[in-house]
Amino acid sequence: MSQPPLHLKLRVNDEEHHVSTPPHATLLETLREDLELTGTKHGCELGECGACAVLVDGSPLLSCLTLSRECEGKSVETIEGVAGDSSELHPLQEAFADLGGSQCGYCTSGLILTAKSLVENNDDPSRATIAEALSGNICRCTGYLQVLDAVEKAVQVLKDRRLSEPGAA
Q1: Are 125 and 155 in contact (CB under 8 A)?
Q2: Cβ(67)–Cβ(25) under 8 Å?
Q3: Chain centroid offset of residue 150 CA
Q4: 3-state secondary structure string, the chain?
């Protein structure tokens, strides 16, 4: 006997969405299949690769292990929302592109979102801190050096922006 669908109100990338989904649907399934936000990738579906990472209330979360219903009333951010309303790329997206931080691109959205959480909570992370923060994200192409370089570059760009703001010390 199947269970009736749940009717959820999800806030994704600063927009409210109403979805009707099975009670067992993961956030990954809801994002990709119901909301057509395909930047979040199906990877291992075991919580081991990080390709499905999104931000929930600003913290990285593996969407393949999270039920959609657990995210009602929370703010979800996917790769499609990283730049916000800006027509420009986020410094992390720019740095990944400029420094070869992504090759095949499959892991990139999870890496960028995980790194975004880090740089929003630590304005001067060391390379070791960056590596530790990204340790749950597997990349089979880059060898990670370009990923670490890209995050360091983005940290510097963000730091320079803060210092150039009016009233910055």
Answers
A1: yes
A2: yes
A3: 15
A4: CCCCCEEEEEEECCEEEEEEECCCCEHHHHHHHHCCCCCCCCCCCCCCCCCCEEEECCEEEECCCCEHHHHCCCEEECHHHCCCCCCCCCHHHHHHHHHCCCCCCCCHHHHHHHHHHHHHHCCCCCHHHHHHHCCCCCCCCCCCHHHHHHHHHHHHHHHHHHHHCCCCC
C-alpha to C-alpha distances, 34 to 42, 112, 124, 133, nearest whole angstrom: 14, 23, 37, 30
pTM of the model: 0.94
Task: Compute the residue count for the chain.
Answer: 169
**Each residue of 29-55: pLDDT tens digit?**
999 999 999 999 999 999 999 999 999
